[in-house]
Design a protein that fits this description.
Elements: H1 16-25, H2 39-80, H3 83-86, H4 94-110, H5 114-121, H6 123-141, H7 147-161, H8 164-173, H9 178-206, H10 217-239, H11 252-264, H12 277-285, H13 287-315, H14 322-328, H15 330-350, H16 353-373, H17 377-391, H18 394-405, H19 409-425, H20 427-430, H21 443-476, H22 489-494
Helix pairs in contact: 2-8, 2-9, 2-10, 2-13, 4-7, 4-19, 5-6, 5-19, 6-7, 6-10, 8-19, 9-14, 9-15, 9-18, 12-19, 13-14, 13-17, 13-18, 13-19, 13-21, 15-17, 16-17, 16-18, 16-21
């Protein structure tokens, strides 16, 4: 579809100036290590390379994000396990919600600049260091004994986790073609849905340690999961690899293949690029960055409301024990995991990420309408399934959509940091909309999430789809050719995605 591949050269014969641009763009290509091979042999080599990249990069990154999402949302399971009572938090839920909000404040404020740090300090150093630090923060949450301690550890947990999600998505976009990135971003993010499912089961098992060492079951949830994160952080120094131009597991032939395939995909992501403020301002001035902010706030606001309060929502549906409520959170997350990967696959094949967002968000709107309006516990529990199905696939799909349409190493990194950071800041809203006095219906919480999904997620997706289609029409008709005419190669590179007029 047109809205996906914004960067098009059209079908007609290009003018001479554009031929020079293309030649210049490929002048630094490394030699083709497969020169002389047939097309079938090249395809076989490329498939083998892609499989090797997947095995080296994806599984460990999924494990890291599973732990990240588990660590940021397990407080919802800890709440059911007695955290508010043991820490003597206010009965109206204000202190608990404030602790949730503090995570998103630090997380969002430090997120926009983390991709620049990732590029400058190398993934193999930056990512493991942040994992190790947030593991310490998570473990410390298990030894606090009052609201102040909980608030401080949540703040620093958000600070430490800030670089992971935008960093990994940016990192993956520097390894894969546009039509390969979506499914891999979806598999990576499906770890979040898996964490929700796994988290409920894990909390059920750990809660049985209640009283051991004089600590409540909720404390052991934090301590054990924090220690596991610390171990994973240490191992990550050997398991996380650098960008293609520096990755040690690549042979020189494979390195050339990766860089060539990205260059022919009209990406400069695999190359060294010196940071200039011009790249930062290019991201800030790009309308796509701000439309993606609108879309992502709709997805993220709903995501955190759902993931932080699902155990509480399910507990309010009937006379369920804490254990039953924990276990009932598993099926909606499992369904969301499957659809997230399926949507990533479909979006890559159809190049219709905007339409995928629109279709999936409607499922979420149906789900929260059921939670808001239905009286039957069975119907409302079914609503949690639709809610999960409508939220989780939109997160990686929106990120892939943005990555596909924003080019330039630093410009893309800054843009991802801005819209992901803004989306996560809406976790402050999500943390304060499900209040005990509004139980058991939680009409305020469900209503706010529904508004987020209709206005921002659905509305923003429709708007960006229409805007990109209009832009495509202008490029195909040659109305943007003047952007590159008469410019030097350096000036053209500064144009980022605008250079493919």
């Amino acid at each position: 579809m047109a809205e996906e591949k914004q960067l098009s050269n059209g079908n007609e014969s290009p003018p001479v100036e554009k031929e020079v641009v293309l030649d210049n763009r490929f002048r630094d290509l490394p030699p083709d290590p497969d020169e002389g091979c047939s097309e079938e042999e090249k395809a076989r080599i490329d498939k083998k390379l892609l499989w090797r990249l997947d095995l080296k990069l994806i599984p460990w990154l999924c494990l890291i994000y599973l732990m990240a999402f588990l660590d940021r949302t397990n407080i919802g399971n800890a709440k059911l396990a007695g955290l508010p009572e043991d820490l003597h938090l206010s009965a109206n839920g204000s202190q608990y919600n404030a602790a949730l909000s503090l995570f998103f404040v630090s997380y969002s404020l430090f997120e926009p600049g983390t991709n620049i740090m990732l590029k400058r300090f190398r993934p193999s150093i930056f990512l493991p260091a942040t994992i190790f630090i947030w593991g310490i923060c998570m473990t410390c949450m298990g030894v606090v004994d009052n609201f102040s301690g909980l608030a401080a550890t949540r703040f620093f947990l958000g600070l430490a986790e800030a670089g992971l999600f935008p960093g990994v998505n940016y990192y993956l976009s520097c390894w894969y073609r546009r039509t390969e990135f979506g499914i891999r971003a979806a598999i990576f993010f499906s770890a979040a849905a898996l964490a929700g499912s796994f988290g409920g089961l894990l909390a059920y098992l750990i809660e049985k340690m209640d009283g051991i060492g004089g600590k409540g079951g909720w404390a052991w949830i934090f301590i054990l999961e924090g220690l596991a994160t610390i171990i994973i952080g240490v191992v990550s120094f050997w398991m996380v690899h650098d960008f293609p131009d520096d990755a040690k597991f690549l042979s020189e032939a494979d390195r050339a293949r990766v860089i060539r395939r990205l260059k022919f995909d009209k990406q400069s992501s695999a190359e060294h690029e010196q940071f200039k403020m011009a790249y930062f301002w290019a991201a800030v001035k790009d309308y796509k960055t701000w439309l993606l902010c609108i879309i992502y706030m709709g997805a993220d606001g709903a995501l955190y409301a759902f993931s932080l309060f699902l155990p509480t929502i399910i507990a309010s549906l009937g006379k369920y024990t804490t254990v039953q409520a924990q276990l009932l959170t598993i099926p909606p997350y499992a369904a969301a995991t499957i659809l997230t990967i399926l949507v990533g696959y479909i979006a890559d094949r159809t190049k219709a990420r905007g339409l995928c967002n629109i279709a999936v968000s409607i499922l979420g709107i149906i789900g929260f309408s059921m939670l808001l309006g239905a009286k039957s516990a069975g119907v409302r529990y079914a609503g949690t399934f639709f809610g999960a199905l409508g939220i989780y696939p939109c997160i990686p799909n929106t990120i892939s959509w943005g990555s596909n349409n924003i080019e330039g190493v630093y410009k893309r990194g800054v843009a991802l940091g801005i819209f992901i950071g803004w989306g996560n800041l809406n976790g402050v809203v999500s943390s304060n909309i499900y209040i005990p006095s509004n139980a058991p219906g939680y009409s305020i919480g469900h209503g706010v999430v529904l508004a987020y999904m209709v206005l921002f997620l659905l509305g923003g997706s429709i708007l960006l789809t229409l805007v990109l289609r209009k832009e495509n029409q202008k490029r195909l008709s040659g109305k943007r050719d003047h952007w590159v005419e008469g410019k030097t190669q350096e000036e053209i590179e500064l144009l980022g995605d605008r250079r493919y007029a």
